[in-house]
């Protein structure tokens, strides 16, 4: 697909996954690899990056004006889609997927479409465990909640203590930066980081590596163009989990 004008799609269905997360389905499917993203255009408001949770859907967490507007749209209304962009996951063999919160969205298709997957799904509480039922029907799933209201009581990285990492050929991770840094540290300690891949989320304006708003220290890679999926080894010395950046790209600790 061209990197130019967005394709206009019509919303066909909305599914409320949790109090703050909604999946929005539309009338066109986009060929993509799991982990790729699209730029979603809302006329007169903004254009924002979103992972494709299904070939014809995005999963939206309410965090600002654009996402609030998206969640409030109804079937029959239209949005623009540009992409898919970036690189997806490189998947082989037995797969371990590790997701925190809405970070489950870029990993969902892996759990649904691939044959030998174990999925570690974490959230703050049981109400915020998105995709749990769909994943339970397709793959092995382990649950963690920060408050202990479902599954393991603690962060999803704690579930790794129960997992024989040497049995897996591919490890894929997505979630909040501190959670991913914690997982990365555990994988380093257990000599498994070389088979890991992490899907990163950053503020993006263009989606094609022109504006530089999603560049990362220390190498200046662009999350949109060089990612959003990165090998774990390449992130060890990066800014991941050390500080945030605002919309201007400035550091916020």
Structure description:
The protein is of the alpha/beta class. It is built from six helices and 17 strands. A seven-stranded mixed β-sheet has the order 10-9-8-7-11-12-15. The longest helix has 13 residues, at 177-189.
Taking the sheet with the most strands, its summary is:
7 strands, mixed
Low-confidence stretches: none
Strand content: 25-35%
Helix content: 10-25%
Give the C-level CATH assignment of one domain.
Answer: Mainly Beta
Tell me the structural class.
Answer: alpha/beta
Output the keywords:
single chain, 253 residues, Elongation Factor Tu (Ef-tu), domain 3, 7-stranded mixed beta sheet, 6-stranded antiparallel beta barrel
Q: Gist?
A:
This protein is of the alpha/beta class. The protein has helices at about 65-70, 110-115, 130-135, 175-190, 225, 230-235; strands at about 5-20, 20-25, 35-40, 45-55, 55-60, 80-85, 95-100, 115-125, 140-145, 150-155, 170-175, 195-200, 215, 220, 230, 245, 250.
How are the SSEs ordered, and which strands pair?
Blueprint: E1 7-18, E2 21-26, E3 37-42, E4 46-54, E5 57-61, H1 65-72, E6 78-85, E7 95-100, H2 108-113, E8 117-123, H3 132-136, E9 140-145, E10 152-153, E11 170-174, H4 177-189, E12 196-199, E13 215-216, E14 221-222, H5 223-226, E15 229-231, H6 232-235, E16 244-245, E17 251-252
Parallel strand pairs: 7-8, 7-11, 8-9, 9-10, 11-12
Antiparallel strand pairs: 1-2, 1-6, 2-5, 3-4, 3-6, 4-5, 12-15, 13-14, 16-17
């Amino acid at each position: 697909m061209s990197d130019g004008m967005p394709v206009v799609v019509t919303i066909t269905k909305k599914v409320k996954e949790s109090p703050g997360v909604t999946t929005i389905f539309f009338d066109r499917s986009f060929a993509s690899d799991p982990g790729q993203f699209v730029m979603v255009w809302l006329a007169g408001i903004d254009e924002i990056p979103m992972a494709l949770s299904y070939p014809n859907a995005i999963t939206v967490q309410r965090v600002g004006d654009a996402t609030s507007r998206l969640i409030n749209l109804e079937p029959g209304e239209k949005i623009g889609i540009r992409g898919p962009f970036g690189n997806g996951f490189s998947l082989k063999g037995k797969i371990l997927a590790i997701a925190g919160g809405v970070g489950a969205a870029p990993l969902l298709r892996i759990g649904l479409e691939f044959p030998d997957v174990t999925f570690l799904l974490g959230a703050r509480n049981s109400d915020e465990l998105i995709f749990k039922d769909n994943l339970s029907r397709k793959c092995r799933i382990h649950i963690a909640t920060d408050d202990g209201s479902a599954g393991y009581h603690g962060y999803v990285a704690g579930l790794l203590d129960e997992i024989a990492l040497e049995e897996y050929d591919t490890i894929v991770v997505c979630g909040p930066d501190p959670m991913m840094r914690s997982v990365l540290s555990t994988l380093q300690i257990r000599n498994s980081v070389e088979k890991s891949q992490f899907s990163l989320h950053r503020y993006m304006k263009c989606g094609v590596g022109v504006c530089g708003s999603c560049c990362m220290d220390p190498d200046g890679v662009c999350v949109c163009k060089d990612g959003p999926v990165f090998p774990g080894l390449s992130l060890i010395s990066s800014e991941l989990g050390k500080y945030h950046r605002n919309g201007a790209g400035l550091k916020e600790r």
